[in-house]
Amino acid sequence: MILGGIDVGGTAIKARIFTGEGFLPGVSRRWETPKESYPALIEHIAEAVEWLRIQADQSDLPIGLALAGLIDSETGESFAANTPATGQTVVRDLTQRVGVPVPVMNDCAAFALSEAQGGAGQGARSVVGLTFGTGLGAGHWVGGKSAFRHGGDSVEIGHIGISAQLAAFHELPGLKCGCGRTGCYEAYLSSAGLSALGRHILGRDISHSQIIDDPSSEEVLSIWFEVVAEALQVLYLMLAPNIIVLGGGVSQMPDFVIRARSALAPHVLGSLPLPKIAISRFGNESGARGAALYAGRMSRA
Ligand SMILES: [Zn+2]
Question: CA-CA distance, 179 to 181, in Å (whole number)?
Fold first, then answer.
């Protein structure tokens, strides 16, 4: 079976074919995500659908879409801090445009599915996927299914506030979040958040990749990993998964898993076992792969 997956993030729309027994990533193409225009966003996604059908030479190719943000499972209405899809009915509009329903799921839930099925979380009963990219989000799969959540499949860890204790100890600034609030984990742990934290600590403009590459920015990273540990602690205490798989562009820095693990270790609570912490198997392709697997499931249902 061949499947198609499309991942719509804040920066890029990525389309990819998945083939073979493990649905391994094949040919791909990417487009820049339109920042303002919703019709342009739908047009780009429709182009991606058409491109996948041509690549697979299959007009009824199962294709799934992973989309950043909340998607109401009943109305299809979405709320996305990083794309122009907020308040729009993506499912309905895309179905009208391409002629067939395209299953849509939250991108972090898609990432978690991909890692639970054939990825780093293969074999674990309860798998959380946590992605650090343009935003910060998570998905939770239990026994091969998305853990039921009222109104959508994303675990909105990104919009929980950091602790007052951590903020006071490091004199952290109250960073503005795309959701409209101040002090959310996403405001510190996204790529822009790491950059904002660097600007606050070092007193100069610096990109997240410069912070990662420059050894003199170590102080920024060490505080940043304390915030990472708190976000992991929230997932550990609330969801108690067997494994948390880390992904997203920011997770590709050197020693990410080792540092996340050692930052989390002091947060162990009594006899509640800490989850295993692992890096994603499918990296940047995991979101599109999860959406493709979901489309495959839907086509067989
Ligand atoms: Zn927020």
Answer: 6
Which domains occur in the chain, in start order?
3-110+284-300 (3.30.420.40), 123-280 (3.30.420.40)
- Whole-number Å distance, alpha carbon 76 to ligand 1 midpoint, is 21
Output the CA 172–ligand 1 centroid distance in Å: 16
- Given a cut of 80, whether residue 74 has pLDDT beyond it is no
Rounded Cα distance between 242 and 113, Å, is 14
Please give the residue that has the higher pLDDT: either 216 or 75. Answer: 216
Which of 158, 145, 153, 150 is CA-nearest to residue 106? 153
The interface predicted TM-score (ipTM) is: 0.99
Tell me the mean pLDDT in the region 167-190.
Answer: 95
User: How far, in Å, is the centroid of ligand 1 from the Cα of 179?
Assistant: 4
* pLDDT for res 81: 64
CA of 190 to the centre of ligand 1 (A): 11
Kindly give, in sequence order, each residue whose CB lies less than 8 Å from that of residue 189, ignoring residues fewer than 6 positions away. 132, 136, 158, 224, 227, 228, 231, 250
